[in-house]
Amino acid sequence: MPACCDDLFQYETNKVTRIQSVNYGTIKWIIHVIVFSYVSFALVSDKLYQRKEPVISSLHTKVKGVAEVKEEVVENGKKKVVQRVFDTADYTFPLQGNSFFVMTNFLQTEGQEQGLCPQYPTRWTLCASDRGCKKGWMDPQSQGIQTGRCVVFKENQKTCEVSAWCPTEAMEEAPRPALLNSAENFTVLIKNNIHFPGHNYTTRNILPDINITCTFHKTQNPLCPIFRLGDIFRETGDNFSEVATQGGIMGIEIYWDCNLDSWSHHCRPKYSFRRLDDKTTNESLYPGYNFRYAKYYKEYGIEKRTLIKVFGIRFDILVFGTGGKFDFIQLIVYIGSTLSYFGLATVFIDLLINTYSSACCRSHVYPRCRCCESCAVNEYYYRKKCEPIVEPKPTLKYVSFVDESHIRMVDEQLLGRSLQDVKGEKVPRPLMDFTDLSRLPLSLEDPPPIPGQPEQIQLLSEEVVPRSGSTPGWCRCGNCLPSQLPEGFQCLEELCCRRKPGACITTSEPFRKLILARRVLHFLLLYQEPLLVLDADSNSQLRHCAYRCYATWRFGSPDLANFAILPSCCRWRIRKEFPKSRGQYSGFKSPY
Predict the structure, then answer these.
(1) Which of 192, 321, 445, 509 has the smallest C-beta neighbourhood within 10 Å, fewest atoms?
(2) 358 — phi, psi (to 5°)?
(3) How far is it, in rounded angstroms, from Cα 53 to Cα 50?
């Protein structure tokens, strides 16, 4: 297989840390049960296993009802009351879309014909002389085109004369109560046919067994398609008589929530009502709903008209809804999208571990709160779960002193300061893995004890080597030597094995057996590369192997050992044991 295809046939997976904990195990299962319950409930209640399709509908309405209207008319200078009967043809008007209109009140101006006449008096049309009128002037609010004359309208009132339909319309308030106040007893039949083309399903809101004399009631007869207009307003909390005076807009909502599965088929409309215009008619600039229309006729060959300002209620029918049917693909998509919710348990538990293992809890909470002491185990979980990685910058260095239990991380420019004097940041020393010691030669085993002589182990803290005149000022053990690097880089090697004065680590038995033992170093080199040929001039390989052995011994982790700075005393002791034949030692080099 070509090398370029190797990456195509690889699989990567995440490494998982399993924590054996009753508390966290309980939290995990509680969250999983909650998530599973929610996912199952949403799946069943919202029917998320179905493929949904919006409804397509058509509407037809029929309004029924008769109203008796009493209105005052002026005939021969006298007022009299005239009774008129209004039927469907009188009070309904054709509208575009899914709407119908019912007239409830009106104002009419009879006998208008084209001519010259004064405008109806308002603060914009009143005048005192012809100077207050402008010939040919008109605006959208005027009733005609001004002739430039100021004429008498009535008694002492003068207005600008206009060329218009005369007499002009009077600006009067709508009659109270509404002339067709009895329209609340009118009924409307709504025929609604719906279709779901994706599911090949068609139905309508008029059921086969419907009673044609029924009237809609929210609880007693919720499926009846015949509605009394007064009942519609009562459902929204409005008074029909008040709305009928100025007019308004009412919405009739038909909601279809159709379950088209064969085992639980259900497709019935649900009716609701909503006021769509501004209810606060007194505060509105243009209250209610009204428009004007005219009835034209001829009298003695002169064209005339009756202008009618109609107030009424427009009913907008809003049809919406969906039809759903079981779809296997939709079910799989829903299950796949909800699997991520189970990861909330991992996120929550990781948050607890990260929070309780933070430096703030370690330094402030645990010392003062006894009940929180059990939470300190999260530090152990955090160390097992997370592997901290420090950015391998050129300024990164690690230092280990024999008289300190921790390691120091130095991540800054030395700027001529001795590395011995830089404090750095304390880093916990990794635990030593003793399994590698089994690979060492048997000669490292302790010699048999001599009868009658107690076993002695050298203690580094007891012996203090006296300082000589050539010992650098930063040395604490008395065995360090000055650096041979250029002057700008010498501070990097100015490091002792101890923080405080005491015996040098190079005088200890472990240093001699682990770092300086030639046989051990030979064994380690061959263990790493069995075919390695060690010639007579193998000091370079042994020296670098000794460097690695010391870094691994004192720093434990390879990540720390790669950036470890060896103390001057240890470095020169190794160089003395495995000297370089010629040339100068190169010193520390960053691995990256």
Answers:
(1) 445
(2) -75, 160
(3) 10
The pLDDT of residue 371: 65
pLDDT at 216: 94
Tokens of 57: 């509908």
Sign (positive or negative) of CA dihedral 282, 287, 289, 295: positive
3-state secondary structure of 444: helix
| pTM attached to this predicted model | 0.64
- How many Cβ atoms from other residues are within 10 Å of residue 233's Cβ? 22
Tell me how far apart the alpha carbons of residues 257 and 235 are, in angstroms, rounded to a whole number. Answer: 21
**359/355 Cα distance (integer angstroms):** 9
Distance of CA 577 to the CA centre of its chain: 66
Cα dihedral value 142, 144, 147, 149, nearest 10 = -60
Nearest to 321 by CA among 45, 54, 57: 54
**Class of residue 240 by CB neighbours under 10 A (exposed 0-12, middle 13-18, buried 19+):** buried
Amino acid identity at 468: S
Q: Which of 103, 172, 117 is nearest to 147 (CA)?
A: 117
Provide the greatest CA pair distance for the chain: 155
The SS3 assignment for 317 reads: strand
Distance of CA 423 to the CA centre of its chain: 45
Backbone φ, ψ for residue 555 (5° rounding): -115, -15
172-188 b/e (C-beta count within 10 Å ≥ 16 → b): eebeeebbbbbbbebbb
* Range among 374-378, 434-438, 565-569 with highest mean pLDDT value: 565-569
Confidence of residue 372 (pLDDT cuts 50, 70, 90): low
Per-residue pLDDT averaged across 34-54, rounded? Answer: 93
Q: Say what angle helices 22-45 and 328-338 make with each other, to 10 degrees.
A: 150
Please name the residues in contact with 538: beta carbons below 8 A apart, sequence gap of 6 or more: none
Q: How far apart are CA 114 and CA 277, in angstroms?
A: 36
Q: What are the backbone angles phi and psi of residue 79, rounded to the nearest 5°?
A: -90, 140
Q: How many residues does the chain have?
A: 592
- What are residue 568's phi and psi, to 5 degrees? -60, -40
Q: Pick left, alpha or beta for residue 127 (phi over 0 → left; psi -120 to 50 → alpha; otherwise beta).
A: beta
Q: What is the 3-state secondary structure (H, E, C) of 530-588?
A: CCCCCCCCCHHHHHHHHHHHHHHHHHCCHHHHCCECCCHHHHHHHHHHCCCCCCCCCCC
pLDDT digits (tens, 9 = 90+) for 275-289: 998 776 565 567 889
In the DSSP assignment, the letter for residue 322 is: E
Residue 163 has a pLDDT of 93
How many Å apart are CA 517 and CA 555, to the nearest integer?
A: 20
For the record, the structure tokens of 227 come out as: 């509605």
Block residue for tokens 């001057």 = 568
Q: In the numeric block, which tokens belong to residue 491?
A: 């501070």
